[in-house]
Structure formats: C-alpha cells, structure tokens
Amino acid sequence: MPPREIARLATAIENGAPLPDGLPAGAGLIIGVTGPPGAGKSSLVDALTAEWRAHGKTVAILAVDPSSRATGGAILGDRIRMQRHHADSGVFVRSMATRGAPGGLAKTTFNLAKLFRSAGFDLIVIETVGVGQDEIAVAGVADVTALVLTPGMGDDVQAIKAGIMEIAGVFVINKADLPGAEKTRREIEGMLSLGEKRAPIFLTVATEGRGIAELAVALEMRERSRWKSPEADFQIDHMGIAVESIDSALAFYRDQLGLTVASCETVEHEKVRVAMLPAGESRIELLEAAAADSTIAKFVSKRGPGLHHVALRVPDLNAAIGRLEAAGARLLGPPRRGAGGHLYVFVHPASTGGVLWELIQQ
Ligand SMILES: Nc1nc2c(ncn2[C@@H]2O[C@H](COP(=O)(O)OP(=O)(O)O)[C@@H](O)[C@H]2O)c(=O)[nH]1
Ligand SMILES: [Mg+2]
C-alpha cells in the first residue's frame, strides 16, 4: 500500500470510519509503549526503530497524543526526533490527537494499528502518554506493551495503578545513565513479586542506544510466546471423512459405533452433503459429494473414501492466517463463513506436511 493511501485511510479511520472490508490481515506485531511524559518513550521508539531497520524490518509508529494535556510542542518534538527515519520508506509515522477519535480511543487506535499491519509493516508501535484509563485501554489493544519508567521515580512506582502493571508485558527503566536505576528495578521486582505476574525488566539509555537490542528482541519474543497460546484455546473441532454415501456410512458410525447424527445438511457452495456426529468435545463430519464436480467427488475418485481433513479450532483465525501467509503457506481460497456463523479456511497439505487442515474460529 503506498504511503499516501495509508495516510488517506488513516484519516478516514480517525474520523470514525470503519476499517475497509477485505484488507489482508497482515502478520505484524502490535507493540504498545506507555509511561509518564518525559520518560523517554519517543526516544526509545526512535532507537528501537533504528534497531529493527538495521535488521530489515519495517516499522509503523502511531503516537497517540492526548491533546487535552500535552502541548503542540510535544508532537513537534517527536516529529523532529523521528526525522532521521523520514526518508526511509520502511518507516511510517503518524500522530493522532485523542480528541479526534469519536467512538472510543482504543477502538480507533486498534483500527489504525490494524491498518498498518494490513499495509504489511512488521512492527506497529503505539506510543501513549501517561498511565490513565485511556492509556491502559490503548495499551490493551497491543500484542505486548512496554511500560517505560525512569530512575528515582521512588514513590511514583508505588503509585502506578494496578491496571497498568497488569498490562505491561515488559518493564523498561530508561535513563539508566541517571542514578537510582537499580533501586527502581528492585522496587518493580518487589511489586511484581506481590502478584502472579512475571515480566522482564530492562535498563536502557535510549539516547545512547544502550540496552536497545536486548529490548527489541524481548518485545519480538512476546509474539512467539503468544503464538503458543494455552492449549485450551485450541481444539480439534472435527474430522472430515469422505464417504461414497452417508446413508451406508451410518451403518458403521451410527449403528455399530453408536454415535448420534446431530445434523445433516447440504452445503451448496461446497456441493457437499454433511452429517455431523458429536464425539465428546469434537465431532465426526461425514462428507458425501452432492454433485459430480464437487471436491469430495474428485477426492473419492482419486484417493478413495477416507479421512479428508482435520479441523482445528484456533483462538484468532486472522492472526493465524497472517502468520501462514507470511510464511508462504498455501491457503485454499480466502476465509469463508460456514453455516454456523463460524469462519474457516483450508490449508493445503503441501504446506502442512501431508494433512489438509481446516482452521476454524467460532
Ligand atoms: N539522560 C537521558 N535522557 C534521556 C534518555 N532518553 C530520553 N532522554 C531525554 O528525555 C527527554 C524526554 O524524552 P522523550 O523521548 O521525548 O520522552 P517521552 O515524553 O516519554 O516521549 C528528552 O530530552 C530526551 O533527550 C536517556 O536514556 N537518558
Ligand atoms: Mg513522546
């Protein structure tokens, strides 16, 4: 997407327009950077951007400016600081005044981030000032959020609201060149030890690029750990079994095994008759060709009846598709909506090691 088109869509979204239909999901990671004014957030974002660019990654930066609190000078300062990336087409910078966000700041911010992700940026950084409710909500839309603090905050660390502590996946003590960084680290560790939460703490000097490479890696690592979601978020939804005839197949599945047919229907656009037989948390899906040119008819004539596909329920189909596309996997068509309102997409066996996988989001 050309920068001018991104900018045009961003303005529309800021003015309350929804995200346009049919945008690709993209696979970029959304990173929140929040903390009190002057902590060095913009300097950090600038240094992280330089680090990521050095590794060939593209970066979109969204500076969310609470216009009620900050002066125009703050935005100007950020702009000047970001100018070293100005001529770089791999960096896109956008400032948003929170005033111009009808229908919820967090929603608008999230839509903008999704726009940048759709435009193909590898990393989308949302910088928000302060630690108030708005900032917590904005930080909440990110895949991972870094809370930026400075040495000598002392009692301020105690005063940080639980909400922001919860949302922070990574703590940064910036200005570690100033006295008191270790003390602040111990205070944060003390607060973290009170709860269940585990989050790494980094010491940085943004203006000198110190500690930046480690922080950049840690932020990206969060993506990997998120991908390994709790198993509960994943579930084998069903096994799709191609049969010559559902009626004769039921002699085994229903009469001999004792399974029950919960539903039987014809899916017109797939030209297939489907019988669903629940089996615990999962189901067996019997597939019978409803026309000679259906994929099931072709499958049966080529390979014979048998296991056709396995369906896996995933927590976030869009995210899964984004990652598959980024990895060059072969998807069989765009995501579709099934009869039950769920979204699904098929991944070609050539990309999965021999199994036709259907990914489903409820
Ligand atoms: N000593 C020191 N100053 C820093 C560091 N990082 C940023 N600053 C300075 O702190 C001020 C505020 O930085 P800025 O990035 O605008 O903070 P923001 O308001 O959180 O975005 C600027 O004058 C920066 O040059 C650092 O690591 N050490
Ligand atoms: Mg700033």
Number of strands: 15
**Coarse shape:** elongated
Low-confidence stretches: 68-74, 226-230
Radius of gyration: 25 Å
In helices, the fraction of residues equals 25-40%
Name given to the CATH homologous superfamily of the largest domain: P-loop containing nucleotide triphosphate hydrolases
Average pLDDT reading: 85
In which order are the strands of the major sheet placed? Answer: 9-10-11-8-12-15-14-13
Question: What's the CATH topology name of the largest domain?
Answer: Rossmann fold
Main sheet properties: 8 strands, mixed
Q: Could you say which structural class the secondary elements and strand pairing correspond to?
A: alpha/beta
Q: Total helix count?
A: 12
* Terminus-to-terminus distance: 30 Å
SSE string: HEHEHEHEHEHHEHEHEHEEEHEHEEE
Query: According to CATH, what is the class of the largest domain?
Result: Alpha Beta
Bound molecules: guanosine-5'-diphosphate, magnesium ion
